[in-house]
Amino acid sequence: MRHYENLVIVKPTLTEEELKAQLASIEEVLTSNGATIVAREDKGIKKLAYQIEKNARGYIYVMYYTMEPSSIAEVERRFKINEELLRYVTIKYDSNREIKAFNDLVAKANKKIAAAAAVAEAKVEAEAKVEAKVEAETVAAPVADKTEEATS
Amino acid sequence: MAEKRKYKKRYCKYCESKVDFIDYKDTGTLKFSLSERYKIMPRRLTGNCKRHQDMITIAIKRSRAAALIPYTVTRKAVITNPFEGL
């Protein structure tokens, strides 16, 4: 097993569902060849430094995985056939130094995902809090009105 | 001026911060070794050591292939700010 990284640029013209299906099929290409995906990094739609097939933007997706070196040719062949992919870049992490860097990158990517999940959770919690507050205010409001009436 | 430059001590920025691996996706660190036309700066100007210069060259070439950094900047196709939004 060897450590690899693949950066993939998907066409920006796809709809959300098509994009999801496309990313799933890309991961399927890897997993069907015996790869175990360790981390994923979703960079979203970014401006490209130069146009590829007349596209100024592209959806960038990065995958870190371990796979047998013999099946990398098959993966690249499958990527080449896919017309929705503008570009793919495969990086090999071979030496000890590079594998260490690979592990760092994986940890970073996973941390990012965890942080994003935490933020989403916090958002949900905050919304729940706001709702609770609004409810409390609506309960408190009539009482306040009554006291005002009493004073006037 | 020439005399001043003669005695200026040059050092490798990457050695100083003990960089072991340069990620091609991190365009911020690559920017240091790129000219304004996105050519790779020579070692005699940046003061990088051979080991780190080799790592940078590989990283820059990879990120060019991944369309993170332009290959060339010509007068016809001027990229106003390619690092914007990266």
How would you describe this structure to a colleague?
The complex is a heterodimer of chains A (152) and B (86). Chain A has 152 residues and is of the alpha+beta class. Chain A has a domain at 2-94: Alpha-Beta Plaits, CATH 3.30.70. Helices cover 55% and strands 32% of the residues of chain A. Chain A has three helices and four strands, in the order βαββαβα. In chain A, a hairpin with a 2-residue loop joins strand 2 and strand 3. Chain B starts with a helix and ends in a 21-residue tail after the last helix. Chain B has a single domain (10-86), classed as Ribosomal protein S18 (30s Ribosomal Protein S18), CATH 4.10.640.10. In chain B, 40% of the residues lie in helices and 0% in strands. Chain B is an all-alpha fold and 86 residues long. Classes of the chains: A alpha+beta (152), B mainly alpha (86). Chains A and B meet through strand 2, strand 4 and helix 3 of A and helix 5 of B.
Briefly, what is this?
By secondary structure, chain A is α+β, with helices and mostly antiparallel strands.
